[in-house]
Design the sequence.
């Protein structure tokens, strides 16, 4: 049993709903009690969808448990098939139905329907949402393509040459409730098309079962979101020999690397290599002198595996930040995130507990947080600027404007989204610095709330009390005055370091000089 | 009883379960903690329904069952014990801990009552433990509050003192208004249940006159009766009419003359009628379809028809207690179609066929209906907004007039220039 106050991921059947809702001509009969219908609002409210998710909930009640819940399942399946006439039927159960073991998938298969039926077994007590989405997508591909395995030849990535046409690829992984998937797909299709590569199928987002059956018309698969698509890509590779890409095109370097990888796999000459470096404004914006102040900014990163890893690379190599913390809630991606953290020589955090993330954030004393909506709240409490880079989805993560994370435009979006909060951080500092000038009126409101500019409380903070209880340290007038001059976003760190230094050296009183001594010592 | 048409329907539903009540209950009693014993689905449900991201440490959480907890109940009880110990250590300010049963905990027959009893002994004088079920196999949405209140009744001491007990969660400001009006009427001993602090439970007994503020408290009412309380029969205090009848019913029980009631509330009524006017303008003659969710539907239908002159197509309710709703049903127009339960697909067919001007529904259905060109009002807002009482009648009406007004603005042709 695990005490959970808030969770990054929903249960696995919500992952299955993401696949079903992303697609056309599919219906999902979910053996579940009435309360599970809450999940519809994730799609209709957060994604602002104008259609209900294609899901029928069997709505069993306590009084049904003594009787025949299997009959109830069959009745709902029959009604759903008659009403919605899906081309493929998904059948599964949520946490409670798993316990009563009606085996709805087997029941459905015994009902004599013509359409393919996918029996989803998603263990609700050990797995989570992304796993559920991945498994559903995999089972769906398997069901719809398994008959073709036996007579299909291995697909050569080079066969487009024989066919005398442009190479074709599938884009796999984008789904509803995935971070900026809607726009990433457009961006990636545009990039591929510029390179003379056609998109065969995008799935699951916008695909129908017919499209799934056409997957093998492409030469290779683009695994855009490994959380959702890696299992499927791996199966397509094993059974049809289809190669798939490993590079996630988030950031300039990865986008170029991605284009290289696609060309190499297809044996398609890359003719516009030089051009690629000028496709996005990020490299120049990052190089321009105005961005000098970004150098070595301390950044703390937490999110799903794909976005956290990409963010770490961009932060370090493309913006010149220092990554001071990296973590993910995706256990399935833990290995990759660990490897990235090891490369960066930072501590890694794999957890589903947001309070642990907040603690790690506090400890790392970053100047910028890249996280989920929950980290945005934690950062706000700590007075640290934050940009959101990952699910869980919030209505704000589905902006009206075109706003991808991937490709050239994605890099532009990332530059703006990450740097603007920092610039505002700088603004805060200026406001703080100049607030004694007569132009400033009292009560100037900071966008970070009162935490950011509150200099008065700095010496009365909990941190101080803790330090004092261990070792009696006094801040003199001059020490205090000097500390207040330090920009607010590093003030906490300077204070802790100075006190640490004072204890180390046995200095009972901290003066302005001690501050400078400490600064020299730690630099 | 007026000639109302009663129907029952079963089938797939689109409603919240009783766990959702925690969203307002935890705010009513800030010294209490609600620990759901359930699955990741339960945790995800509450955080999604509440949009909770803003709290550092919310006063509710879920003890998520894992594979190993399902293997043996004895271990599950032990595990729950451990989780509670950790929680109490971390949150010493908790005075009452609600152990809330869920669909999975009910199905595996986790005995929360015994766990609560054991914990009560261990934490005697520090934390009180009560248990109830908010599971979706037994409860719908507001019925969670019914369960929570019922669970508190055994902790309430007995007293034969005469008092008026307002039962059902109210917004604090509304509660204050009601108490002031009752005091002006000459009723001085007034208490609320649930109280604002979980430890300040009212004493009850044979001279306790219970006045319900919410229509969804069937089980609580039954247990209060067993403790000797008198239940005042009245419509619910939504809108001017309902609130007036409600005050009158209370006054009658306390032998206060009707004249006195009218003297006190007339100025309020006049003021409220004035405020209601502009909303009535919009709502008048518009056709309303209420989907089931909160059990407030019948009272809302009565208000929107009698005071705002809307036409009622269908009034859905997840559960109908005819006895408790007697006074409300009497106020409904003849031939009102009440449907208890739901077959969401068939009901949506009826929505489309009847082409209503406004549909009251859950959040899962609102945008899809809007996309079909049907204006909606989400029912969850009724349990979060202060809508009770005469002074709030216009605010209540505005919840329904706003979507219509907005629709009017956005579909207006006057701005088209090309």
Sequence:
């Amino acid at each position: 049993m695990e005490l959970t106050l808030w969770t990054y991921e929903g249960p696995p059947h919500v992952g299955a709903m993401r696949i079903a809702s992303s697609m056309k001509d599919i219906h999902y009969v979910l053996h579940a009690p009435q309360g599970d219908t809450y999940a519809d609002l994730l799609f209709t409210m957060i994604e602002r969808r104008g259609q209900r998710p294609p899901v029928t909930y069997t709505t069993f009640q306590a009084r049904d448990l003594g009787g025949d819940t299997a009959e109830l399942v069959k009745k709902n399946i029959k009604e759903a098939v008659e009403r919605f006439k899906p081309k493929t039927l998904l059948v599964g159960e949520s946490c409670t139905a798993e316990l009563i073991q009606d085996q709805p998938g087997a029941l459905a298969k015994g009902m004599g329907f013509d359409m393919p039926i996918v029996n989803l077994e998603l263990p609700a007590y050990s797995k989570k949402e992304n796993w559920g989405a991945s498994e559903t997508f995999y089972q769906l591909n398997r069901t719809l393509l398994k008959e073709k395995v036996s007579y299909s030849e291995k697909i050569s990535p080079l066969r487009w040459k024989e066919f005398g046409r442009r190479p074709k690829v599938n884009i796999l992984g984008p789904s509803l409730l995935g971070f900026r998937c809607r726009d990433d797909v457009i961006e990636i299709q545009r990039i591929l098309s510029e390179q003379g590569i056609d998109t065969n199928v995008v799935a699951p987002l916008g695909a129908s079962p017919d499209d799934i059956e056409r997957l093998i018309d492409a030469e290779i698969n683009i695994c855009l979101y490994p959380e959702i698509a890696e299992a499927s890509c791996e199966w397509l590779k094993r059974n049809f020999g289809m190669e798939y890409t490993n590079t996630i095109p988030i950031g300039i370097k990865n986008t170029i690397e991605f284009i290289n990888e696609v060309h190499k796999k297809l044996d398609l000459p890359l003719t516009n290599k030089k051009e690629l470096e000028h496709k996005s404004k990020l490299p120049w914006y990052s190089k321009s002198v105005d961005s000098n102040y970004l150098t070595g900014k301390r950044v703390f990163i937490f999110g799903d595996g794909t976005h956290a890893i990409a963010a770490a690379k961009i932060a370090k190599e493309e913006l010149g930040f220092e990554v001071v913390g990296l973590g993910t809630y995706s256990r399935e991606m833990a290995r990759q995130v660990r490897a990235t953290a090891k490369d960066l020589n930072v501590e890694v955090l794999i957890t589903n507990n947001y309070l642990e993330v907040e603690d790690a954030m506090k400890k790392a004393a970053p100047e910028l947080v890249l996280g989920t909506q929950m980290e945005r709240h934690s950062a706000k409490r700590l007075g640290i600027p934050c940009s959101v880079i990952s699910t869980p989805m919030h209505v704000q993560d589905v902006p009206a404007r075109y706003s991808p994370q991937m490709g050239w435009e994605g890099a532009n979006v990332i530059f703006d989204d990450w740097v603007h909060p920092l610039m505002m951080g700088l603004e805060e500092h200026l406001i703080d610095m100049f607030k004694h000038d007569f132009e400033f009126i009292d009560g100037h409101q900071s966008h970070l709330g009162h935490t950011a500019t509150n200099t008065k409380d700095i010496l009365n903070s909990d941190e101080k009390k803790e330090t004092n209880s261990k070792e009696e340290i006094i801040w003199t007038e001059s020490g205090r005055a000097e500390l207040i001059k330090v920009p607010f976003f590093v003030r906490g760190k300077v204070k802790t370091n100075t006190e640490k230094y004072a204890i180390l050296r046995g200095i009972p009183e901290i003066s302005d000089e001690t501050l400078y001594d400490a600064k020299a010592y730690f630099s | 009883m007026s000639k109302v048409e009663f129907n029952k329907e079963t089938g797939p539903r689109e409603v919240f379960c009783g766990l959702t009540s925690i969203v307002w209950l935890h705010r009513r009693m800030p010294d209490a903690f609600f620990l759901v014993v359930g699955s990741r689905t339960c945790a995800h449900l509450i955080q999604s329904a509440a949009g909770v991201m803003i709290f550092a440490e919310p006063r509710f959480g879920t003890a998520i069952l894992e594979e190993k907890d399902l293997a043996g109940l004895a271990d599950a009880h032990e595990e729950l014990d451990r989780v509670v110990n950790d929680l109490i250590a971390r949150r010493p300010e908790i005075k009452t801990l609600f152990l809330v049963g869920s669909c999975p905990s009910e199905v595996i027959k986790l005995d929360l009552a015994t766990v609560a009893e054991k914990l009560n002994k261990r934490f005697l004088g520090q934390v009180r433990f009560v248990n109830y079920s908010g599971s979706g196999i037994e409860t719908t949405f507001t019925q969670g509050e019914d369960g929570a209140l019922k669970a508190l009744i055994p902790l309430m001491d007995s007293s034969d003192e005469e008092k008026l007990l307002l039962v059902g969660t109210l917004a604090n400001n509304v509660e204050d208004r009601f108490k002031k009006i009752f005091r002006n009427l000459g009723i001085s001993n007034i208490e609320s249940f649930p109280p604002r602090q979980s430890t300040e439970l009212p004493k009850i007994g044979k001279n306790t006159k219970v006045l319900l503020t919410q229509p969804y408290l069937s089980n609580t009412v039954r247990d209060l009766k067993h403790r000797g309380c008198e239940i005042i029969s009245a419509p619910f205090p939504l809108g001017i009419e309902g609130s007036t009848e409600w005050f009158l019913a209370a006054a009658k029980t306390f032998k206060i003359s009707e004249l006195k009631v009218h003297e006190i509330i007339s100025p309020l009524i006049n003021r409220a009628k004035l405020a209601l006017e502009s909303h009535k303008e919009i709502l008048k003659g518009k056709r309303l379809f209420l989907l089931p969710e909160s059990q407030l539907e019948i009272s809302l239908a009565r208000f929107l028809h009698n005071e705002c002159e809307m036409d009622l197509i269908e009034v859905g309710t997840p559960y109908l207690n005819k006895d408790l709703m007697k006074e409300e049903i009497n106020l409904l127009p003849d031939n009102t179609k009440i449907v208890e339960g739901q077959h969401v697909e068939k009901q949506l067919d009826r929505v489309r066929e009847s082409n209503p001007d406004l549909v009251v529904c859950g959040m899962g259905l609102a945008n899809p209906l809007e996309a079909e060109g049907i204006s909606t009002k989400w029912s969850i807002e009724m349990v979060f907004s202060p809508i009770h009482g005469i002074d709030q009648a216009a605010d209540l009406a505005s919840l329904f007039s706003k979507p219509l007004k907005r629709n009017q603005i956005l579909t207006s042709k006057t701005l088209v220039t090309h």
User: Anything to note?
Assistant: Chain B touches chain A through 64 residues (CB under 8 Å).
